[in-house]
Structures are given as structure tokens and as C-alpha cells.
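Quick log. Single chain, no ligands specified.
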Amino acid sequence: MRYTAAMANEKAVYAPGELDKIKGRLGPLGEKEAKRMQKMLGGEVGRERTEYEDAKIADAIAAEKEAAGGKGKARKSGQRIIEVAGAGQDEERAAAPVRASLPVPRPKYAQRVRMDACCADAEFGIKTAFQSLVSKLSFFNAPQDKVSVRFVKYIILEYYKQIEIVVHATRLLYPRNNKDLEAALKKLSPFAALVLDTLRQWKLDALSREIARLQRNPRAVRVQDFSRLLKEFYRPLVLLEKLSAEEHIQGAFDKLHRALFMENPSAQTEALRSNIADALAALEYTRFHIHRFMYPLLMKILSDVYLPYEEFFSRNRAAFLAFLNVSEESVIAPALWQEDEQAALEAALDSSDPPLPPLAAPPEPAASAAAPAEPEPDAATTHADVAATRADAAATRAEGAEVRAAHTMKKRNDAEQRALDKGLDTLELLFPDAGWKRLDKNPDLYPYFADLLDLKKNSAIISPLDPSQSVLVLARIAGELLVGFRSMQFALNFGEEDGITPILDQWQRILEESFYGNYIPKIDEYARIFDPSKSRRPKTTYAMNLLNDIHWMRRYYFFPHYEYKSGIPPSFSKKNVTALYATVRDLRRMLTEIAEDIDAVKKNGGLESGAVYLKAKNAEAPYHFEIENPLSKRLGLLLPKKQRTNITLVYFTLAICAVLDERLNNPASAAYQADREVVYRSLNNEGREPVLWVEKRTDVAALMQKSIAECKGAS
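-> predicted structure:
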């Protein structure tokens, strides 16, 4: 149904709320009086326009005024309008792109609630659980469609970094100002030139401006405010959506390598391979993961009904392309690649030149003087030979993809291993001979730390084979160090809500809730069911429910990759769980940001050169603990006075958090290889007769004194 300006004055159709106003002016009327007035006045019963109809009329009026040269009001206050460029026009090349107001119908209550619940899902993190709850409780009027502060401040930056890797790596290999290389690549493969130009022209400056604009006031950001950012994010992905990663995009980089080789035969270096591997890995993550993570924002903007990810883009294809100002003809078709390959095949048939080495192939060893010369290629090369060559090249590209992926993974693993080694060295320095170097073998940490960290007595029930024992000790150590962070002066956009300050405030509460409030009492209760006379555990419903809860707690509180499948749900709600693993992950990220800021100031010459700390303003000030604790005392014994600063405290805490994060969030860590059947501390670790008392170590203080003496002797 098309609404026109004339419909605004349609008979018997009133503006929203107008009938109520008329009734209010008339006052209360009885049934007889109402019928008498209807006979006297005549006419038909009218109706009110819906808000959606009102918005359509307002847009039609504005369009007619614009066509007549008038400006007019584009929309009523509160109406959601999305500006889209005319479909089929290139925003960069069109002299005067057509603009149209695209009103989005307000979703009905049920659909709005489903959309907001999707946005609040942990996978997306676009809204908070509280915002989703407010939406559910707003039956009559939709609440302000705001976005999570954490999403605006942190998550969107992580997505931007992936795009930045892709664009910077592509521009490094294929600079925009190298016209000779550009001409050579277009001659060699127009398809590759088109694909790589799409990547290098990704508008990083526009994305960064939009993110900076949103972060100026993150608490006031609404879904509609992401409109421009979504356009710049999705446009290149749509242009490349029909292309496969291995054959087409990787093939484009292969062609670029050939062009670079022709320009400079020494261009094939390890740095080149590393840049391309990083670009392909980041692009793959962006295309297949971030593309999904951002879709609820698009759904809120373009659709009035909830749709799962798999259906949204197909059912809203036209609106999506119009929103991005992209036509179907602009999307790069795989057929262009086939045309390039056919042209290359024909050129190979007419040429006797040997093929250039593919991108992923390792450099060939230099031929020795005694080696026999290769025979000249036969000019009568057959189509079958060339087809075989193409098949070999395709196999080489596939092998190259595996090599690049393995290279990228190796770099990440190496970085994680360095962080883990540094963390273990730090722990060994603070707590010598506690067993940190044997952490993968699950040493018993309770006897060492029972008195040192004042662990509660019931903590002894956790089996040393249970990796949550080391998690408890590491979390307590980190918590003692975090006390010193209260004297740090954080930047306003770093220490407020969803920043580091709430973690400092809630750390102890999270440990109390997870370990002492739930996990340890369940284990203790389960252990006491043991019947010594039968030497086995009774398989009662009560015992099985306790064991079921213990396994679910391991997964919800500590180990998100813990594989536990049960047809019985836990007796507690996941909504009431504050996951320690998520808090540790956020803390490590924030500490890394502070450490990177400190390193940047050092590289720029320190405070004397005019550099400033952006995260922790008083980073060079002496650290301060209002009340001495075991960690502050040990730091004081180990460090000279000039090193007792907030910088040192950040480095020590980050090192320990790296170990804790690895235990919790890395599915390849030794914590996930532990024996899951062992639930409580038992005799000979057999999982049968429980042990409720543990002898504590008495050499802890002596070991520390010995370590201090060795450190001073070495210095």
C-alpha cells in the first residue's frame, strides 16, 4: 500500500490519539446520549492511523515538498529513519547519489523482545541482560534502544583490529601509490586487481571516526547510531561474499605475488609470506565470525521481525543492498576468476616461458654448476599438460593455505607460550618450590598456600587432581595484588563501569560466590556421602544430582570449554552465575592495554620527552597497599625501593593473570586434560575414601628467605 500526502486528510481517519482527545473534551456520555448525538450529527465511525501509517504519510509529505523545491520536515520526532543511497549507484563515483528515507516499522512487542534477547546473548554482547529484561517488561512502549557500554568501548575495537590487519597487510603488498604494480597486476589478472583493490580501499579512517564518535558518550549510544559504521563494515564483505577463501581470495594474492616477482625477483621473502598469512587469517575471521557477530544490529535497523542469522540476509537482501548502496551487479562474481584462468591457459599455450613460482611454494635451492640443464619446454605443449599444471598449482595453493594458517597459529602459540613462561617464572620467584614448574602435572598447592593465603579450611576438600585447585590459588594471588591497584589513577574512559574498577570491586565477591558459596560446599557434601562399610559411593538420586551440579559449576564458573553432556539440568540458573573465566579474560585484556601504554611511553622517551600515560596516569608513582598482605610483603622483600612502583605491580599482575587465563580459557591447556572423575580429595587419589585433613608445609618462610638471599647474592 502506497501512502501519499493526500491520505493525511482522508475522511474518518484520524491522527494517533485524536479520538481520545475528542472523547476527553466531550466528557462522559451515556449510551442513549451517544446514540442521540450520532443521529443528529450523522457520519461513519472513524479510526486512528497507526504510528507506522503516520510515519509513511510524513515521509510522503516530505518527499512531495522536496520535489516541489521545498525543504519541509523529513520526519516526526521519534520516528526511526534510515538514509540509504539509491540502489545500483556507486557512492564513490556517482555525482549526485539518490537519497531516500526508508522508514522502518516498529517491531511488535514479541518480535522486539526476541531481537533484544538475541542482542544480549553472550555470543554477541550488543546489549546487557538488564537491557533485555527492561525490553521484556516494557509491554506498551519500547524502551530506549541503547547498546551495551562494553560493546561500544571494547568489543567493537577488537573487530576493528581484525579489519586493520587485513587492510594494512594488503596496502603494504599492494600500495595505492604504486601505479606500475597496479598496471602490471591488472594486465596479469583483472580479477585479482579488483579483489585486492576492494580490500585495500576498505575505509579504515571512516571506521575509526565512527568508533571515536560512538565512544565519546558510550552510555548514550543507540542501535541507530551504528548505521554508518555498519555500512562501512559490511560493504567490502558483500562485494567479496561470493568468493571462496582458498580458491579466489588466496588466488588473488598468488597473482599479486607473480606481479611482485616480475617487478622484483627478490620480492618473495619470509616477511611477505607472514603478512599474507596474517591478512588471510584476519579476513577469514572477519568474513565468517564478525560478519555474524554484527548481524543483530543490522536486524534491528532493517527488519521488523526476528530472523536467525541463516535467514536474515537472504530474506532482507534487497533492503540490505540498498542500505549499503551496492547493486547485485557490483558483487564480484566467481566467473571473473574463471575468465582470468582461461586467459592464463591460452597465454600458457602460446608461451614457452617457465611458470613463476607460486606464493606458497618454498624457495627453490640454487642449482649447482654440475647439475644438468633443464630441457627447453616443448612448443607443442598440449592442453592436457597445461591442465595438469593448473591442477598442480591449485594443489600448491591449498597447501599454501595450510602453511599460512599453521604459520599464523604458530605465532600466536609462541606468544602465548612466552607469556605463560614469564608468568610461571614470576610465580616461582614469589613462591619458590611451590610446584609452578610442574603445573601441568597438577601438584598439590593447598599445603603450601593454606596459611600463606589464609585459605578456608574447607578448601582442602578440592582434589589436587582437580585443576580448579590451582585456579583458586592463582585467583587469590591475583586478588592480593589487585588491592594495590586502588591507588592508581585510571583514565575516565578506562576505570568506569565495564572498565577495570568494577573488577577490582567485585573480585573477592566472585571468588566467594563461585568457590566458597557453591563449588566447595557441593564437593564437601558429596564427599561426606561416602559409606566406609561399603567402600563405594551410593548411586542415590541425591548423590547423582550433587555430582551433576559439580560438573555444571566447573563449566559455568571456571572452564568454558569443559565438555560435559548431561540430560539433567543443574539445580541453579546460569543467569545467576558470574563466570570467573570471563572476568579473568577481561582483566588480562585491560592489564595488557595498560602495559602496552607503559611500553609506548618508554619508547617515546618517557615523561621527560612530554609523553603521557593514557591508561594509568600515575604509573610511575610508588605502589600503595592500605593494608599489608602476603603479596605486598613479598614484593617489598624482593624489589629495591626504586622499583616498587605501579608499573612493576602491573607487570607482576599481568604475568600471573596470563597463567590464570591460560588455565581457564585455553582448551589446549593441561587443565582440560585432568581426570574429570576425581571430584574430592581422597586417599591415594583413588576417588573413594575422602581425606578431610591435610598436613601443611612448614618450610614456606625458609624457602622465601633462601630465595631472597640468592637474589641479593646474584645482584
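DSSP finds 26 helices and four strands in the chain.
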